Amino acid sequence: MARDPAFVLRYLAEVEELAEDVLAARQQIVDLDVKRNRNREALRALQKDAEPEDKAMVCFGSMFIELPKAKTREMLRQDQEELDEEINKLRKDLRVKVNRLYEAQGKPELKGFNLNPMSAEEMKLINRILEG
Fold this sequence. Notes:
Layout: H1 5-48, E1 55-60, E2 63-68, H2 69-105, H3 120-131
Antiparallel strand pairs: 1-2
Helix pairs in contact: 1-2
Protein backbone atom coordinates (compact mmCIF):
# COMPACT_ATOMS: atom_id res chain seq x y z
CA MET A 1 0.00 0.00 0.00
CA ALA A 2 1.82 3.10 -1.24
CA ARG A 3 1.44 6.33 0.69
CA ASP A 4 1.41 9.78 -0.79
CA PRO A 5 4.93 11.24 -0.24
CA ALA A 6 3.49 14.67 0.59
CA PHE A 7 1.31 13.09 3.30
CA VAL A 8 4.30 11.28 4.80
CA LEU A 9 6.36 14.47 4.80
CA ARG A 10 3.55 16.44 6.48
CA TYR A 11 3.17 13.69 9.08
CA LEU A 12 6.90 13.57 9.83
CA ALA A 13 7.08 17.37 10.01
CA GLU A 14 4.15 17.43 12.46
CA VAL A 15 5.69 14.73 14.67
CA GLU A 16 9.05 16.50 14.62
CA GLU A 17 7.45 19.83 15.55
CA LEU A 18 5.57 18.23 18.45
CA ALA A 19 8.76 16.52 19.65
CA GLU A 20 10.65 19.82 19.51
CA ASP A 21 7.89 21.45 21.59
CA VAL A 22 8.25 18.71 24.21
CA LEU A 23 12.04 19.04 24.31
CA ALA A 24 11.87 22.84 24.51
CA ALA A 25 9.37 22.68 27.40
CA ARG A 26 11.54 20.17 29.26
CA GLN A 27 14.61 22.37 28.81
CA GLN A 28 12.73 25.42 30.02
CA ILE A 29 11.66 23.50 33.15
CA VAL A 30 15.28 22.47 33.79
CA ASP A 31 16.51 26.05 33.35
CA LEU A 32 13.88 27.44 35.73
CA ASP A 33 14.64 24.69 38.24
CA VAL A 34 18.33 25.64 38.20
CA LYS A 35 17.36 29.25 38.91
CA ARG A 36 15.02 28.11 41.69
CA ASN A 37 17.85 26.10 43.30
CA ARG A 38 20.18 29.11 43.16
CA ASN A 39 17.53 31.24 44.85
CA ARG A 40 17.09 28.56 47.53
CA GLU A 41 20.84 28.57 48.14
CA ALA A 42 20.85 32.36 48.42
CA LEU A 43 17.93 32.33 50.86
CA ARG A 44 19.68 29.72 52.98
CA ALA A 45 22.91 31.75 53.02
CA LEU A 46 20.98 34.84 54.14
CA GLN A 47 19.27 32.86 56.92
CA LYS A 48 22.58 31.48 58.21
CA ASP A 49 24.17 34.94 58.41
CA ALA A 50 24.74 36.08 62.00
CA GLU A 51 24.08 39.76 61.27
CA PRO A 52 20.58 39.99 59.77
CA GLU A 53 20.49 43.80 59.72
CA ASP A 54 23.44 44.18 57.33
CA LYS A 55 23.21 44.67 53.61
CA ALA A 56 23.79 42.04 50.95
CA MET A 57 25.32 42.35 47.50
CA VAL A 58 22.75 41.27 44.89
CA CYS A 59 23.51 40.65 41.23
CA PHE A 60 21.03 42.05 38.69
CA GLY A 61 22.22 41.04 35.23
CA SER A 62 25.79 42.33 35.04
CA MET A 63 25.44 44.79 37.91
CA PHE A 64 25.83 44.32 41.69
CA ILE A 65 23.65 46.36 44.05
CA GLU A 66 23.84 46.52 47.82
CA LEU A 67 20.39 46.01 49.38
CA PRO A 68 19.13 45.45 52.92
CA LYS A 69 19.00 41.73 53.71
CA ALA A 70 15.30 41.86 54.62
CA LYS A 71 14.46 43.33 51.22
CA THR A 72 16.73 40.80 49.51
CA ARG A 73 15.02 37.89 51.31
CA GLU A 74 11.60 39.20 50.34
CA MET A 75 12.64 39.57 46.69
CA LEU A 76 14.04 36.02 46.66
CA ARG A 77 10.90 34.58 48.27
CA GLN A 78 8.70 36.36 45.73
CA ASP A 79 10.92 35.11 42.89
CA GLN A 80 10.68 31.57 44.32
CA GLU A 81 6.88 31.74 44.30
CA GLU A 82 6.84 32.98 40.71
CA LEU A 83 9.29 30.27 39.65
CA ASP A 84 7.20 27.58 41.37
CA GLU A 85 4.06 28.78 39.58
CA GLU A 86 5.82 28.93 36.21
CA ILE A 87 7.37 25.46 36.63
CA ASN A 88 4.01 23.96 37.63
CA LYS A 89 2.32 25.62 34.65
CA LEU A 90 5.03 24.32 32.29
CA ARG A 91 4.73 20.81 33.72
CA LYS A 92 0.97 20.86 33.21
CA ASP A 93 1.44 22.07 29.62
CA LEU A 94 4.13 19.43 29.08
CA ARG A 95 1.65 16.68 29.87
CA VAL A 96 -0.64 17.94 27.12
CA LYS A 97 2.24 18.24 24.66
CA VAL A 98 3.49 14.72 25.39
CA ASN A 99 -0.01 13.32 24.93
CA ARG A 100 -0.36 15.15 21.59
CA LEU A 101 3.00 13.74 20.48
CA TYR A 102 2.00 10.21 21.48
CA GLU A 103 -1.32 10.63 19.69
CA ALA A 104 0.42 11.81 16.52
CA GLN A 105 2.77 8.81 16.70
CA GLY A 106 -0.16 6.44 17.14
CA LYS A 107 1.00 5.38 20.60
CA PRO A 108 -1.40 4.91 23.52
CA GLU A 109 -1.67 7.71 26.07
CA LEU A 110 0.72 7.40 28.99
CA LYS A 111 -0.97 5.87 32.01
CA GLY A 112 -0.52 7.70 35.31
CA PHE A 113 1.08 10.69 33.61
CA ASN A 114 -1.81 13.00 34.50
CA LEU A 115 -1.62 12.32 38.23
CA ASN A 116 -1.36 15.26 40.59
CA PRO A 117 0.33 15.12 44.01
CA MET A 118 -1.87 15.14 47.09
CA SER A 119 -1.98 18.29 49.15
CA ALA A 120 -0.73 18.39 52.73
CA GLU A 121 -4.34 18.50 53.92
CA GLU A 122 -5.23 15.40 51.90
CA MET A 123 -2.21 13.59 53.34
CA LYS A 124 -3.29 14.44 56.89
CA LEU A 125 -6.74 13.00 56.21
CA ILE A 126 -5.23 9.81 54.74
CA ASN A 127 -2.94 9.43 57.77
CA ARG A 128 -5.91 9.88 60.15
CA ILE A 129 -7.82 7.17 58.30
CA LEU A 130 -4.86 4.80 58.34
CA GLU A 131 -4.19 5.37 62.04
CA GLY A 132 -7.76 4.39 62.83
